[in-house]
Amino acid sequence: MRPRLIALDMDGTMLDGEGRLTPRLKAAFTAAQDLGVRIVAATGRMYPSAMMHLGEAGIKSASIFYNGALIRDTEDGRTIYERRVGKDLTAGILSFFRERGWYIHAYSDDKLIVVDDSDERCRYYEKLSGQKAVAYGEKFWDSGLDSSKLLGISFDGDEFMRMGREVREAFGGSIYQATTWGAFLEMVHPSVNKANALERVCRYYGVPREEAAAIGDGINDIEMIKWAGTGIAMGNSKDAVKAAADIIAPPNTEEGAARIIERLIAS
User: Fold this and answer.
1) Which of 75, 97, 102, 247 could serve as a FRET partner for 30 with CA atoms 20 to 30 Å apart?
2) Exposure pattern of 152-187 as b/e (b: 16+ CB <10 Å)?
């Protein structure tokens, strides 16, 4: 059965190995939407960073940002759902990272907010996201932010593992955390994940779960892949992601997303 809605992660799924949309994928999106199938982005990226690609992709449906903390219409910019971390919890997480000397940045009002924009981790993320950070200096720690998402970064494998473990021990169920890119620790409100966001989008459009498909490659895609009527893991996924899926697509370096969408809409 052809799905009525297809949700896709971006990095490692929608985007190829060079971080680009291929002509074949854009054509698959157009063909699907012409048949009445809704294409929905489901990404951990901040809204402005994702929209650099979604406009080019021609996606016309409400999409999921900040790992599910924000659902926004891609055409008129209207916010359909938003769930921030909260000022108190944001302050607690910032204090926790400050005490340990770990890097962290925050997303608030679609801005990337950091202590120091000359930090190599900030510059790496700016290049990856295509967004310029706003440097607050030391006032960052006590700025009263209510963040959509917080992101810790470490390129040291041992420190990254310790970061994830200690955040789990300290905050437990008060946040939802996910690891991406082998160096990013994403932290959002505990009710936020891509599956819950996809459920909201499906309800918004009146699409039953059984008629939704979800495609992803990351650990933070597992809930979404399990929730959808048809769950699809990319060939470049880790084993845990593949184990959650009904179908394994080719990797993103081999037009995997385009090929699986072509298959879905031809059914």
Assistant:
1) 247
2) bbbeeeebbeebbeebeeebeeebbbbbbeebbbbb
d(CA 248, CA 267): 17
The pLDDT tens digits of the residues spanning 199-230 come to: 999 999 999 999 999 999 999 999 999 999 99
Residues 6+ apart with CB under 8 A from 71: 62, 63, 64, 65, 79, 80, 81, 82, 197, 200, 201, 204
* Interatomic CA distance for residues 82 and 66, integer angstroms: 10
Cβ contact 37:267 at 8 Å: no
Q: What are the chain's domains?
A: 5-82+192-266 (3.40.50.1000), 87-188 (3.30.1240.10)
CA torsion, points 109, 111, 115, 116, in degrees to nearest 10?
Answer: -170
Residue 65: which of 186, 204, 167, 152 has the closest Cα? Answer: 186
Smallest CA-to-CA distance from 56 within 78, 74, 31 is with 74
CB–CB of 207/198 below 8 Å? no
Ramachandran class of 173: left when φ > 0, alpha when ψ lies in -120 to 50, beta otherwise: alpha
How far is it, in rounded angstroms, from Cα 122 to Cα 147?
17
pLDDT tens, 20-75? 999 999 999 999 999 999 999 999 999 999 999 999 999 999 999 999 999 999 98
Q: How many CB atoms lie within 10 A of CB 100?
A: 14
CB 81 within 8 Å of CB 24: no
